[in-house]
Amino acid sequence: MGTINRETYKLGNGVEIPIIGLGVYRVEEGDQMKQVVLSAIEAGYRHIDTAAFYGNEKGVGEAIKASGLPREELFITTKVWNDDLGFEETLNAFNKSLWNLGLDYLDLYLIHWPIEGKYTESWRAFEKLYEEGKVKAIGVSNFHQQHLEEIFAMCRVKPMVNQLEYHPYLAQREMRAYCEAQDIQLEAWAPLNRGGVFKEPIIQELAGKYDKTPAQIILRWDVQNGVSTIPKSATPSRIVENIDIFDFKISDEDMKRIDALDRNQRIGKNPDNFSFDE
């Protein structure tokens, strides 16, 4: 078994979230899903990030069971999808996700997208689940400042995590600063830009300089920026590679060179202007 990575960030409520986790978007349900998660656990990952929309919660649950690890050793995240936003709808969706995963509680539950007019009712459901101890931490995904402010205006419990698209081409400086000021942990989805940044000359140069892969340079940049990260891979060797980022440090000067790659370029939808009807 790989070295278990114990590095964590502390959320606003004191819960510790692993700095790096495995994202399972587009990993097929069934045997592939089970093997991917078991490979990650073997490599030392303790955070698995899924979502109702991914359709693979059952496979994650089977892998958790097959791993034989005590439940408290793992940090499991899932998300409520757009069709299930609303108070009762969210409570029902949570119970379904929990059943699919075969768990008694979740470590982190997120609202997947800020669907206008619906997410505040879902947040009321999140607070209920949190206060009942069914989830250790609650948060959001793809929320910008105006969405968070709408939550702040009505909430009893503030979001603890905001999961955003985040990579060197979309460095989210303003949102990073805002979340930090609000004591909300920023978490990166698509941190590797689906490989789109690997051929950047600066990334290539730094990979050579630090004797690391382009992916490791980018993930280390996340971590040094205080961002938790959930790279997705179904390849066992890449899964191992992605977590092997804790034995080196990128210099401040080189961090700034990576920062300079920012071009506000997305591969996903913009939370300020998005539709799922396309």
Automatic annotation (TrEMBL):
Residues 21-262 form the NADP-dependent oxidoreductase domain. InterPro entries: AKR, Aldo/ket_reductase_CS, NAD(P)_OxRdtase_dom_sf, NADP_OxRdtase_dom. Pfam families: Aldo_ket_red (PF00248). Keywords: NADP, Oxidoreductase. PROSITE patterns: ALDOKETO_REDUCTASE_1, ALDOKETO_REDUCTASE_2, ALDOKETO_REDUCTASE_3. PANTHER family: 2,5-DIKETO-D-GLUCONIC ACID REDUCTASE, NADP-DEPENDENT OXIDOREDUCTASE DOMAIN-CONTAINING PROTEIN. Belongs to the aldo/keto reductase family. This is Aldo/keto reductase. It comes from Salinicoccus sesuvii. The lineage of its organism: Bacteria, Bacillati, Bacillota, Bacilli, Bacillales.
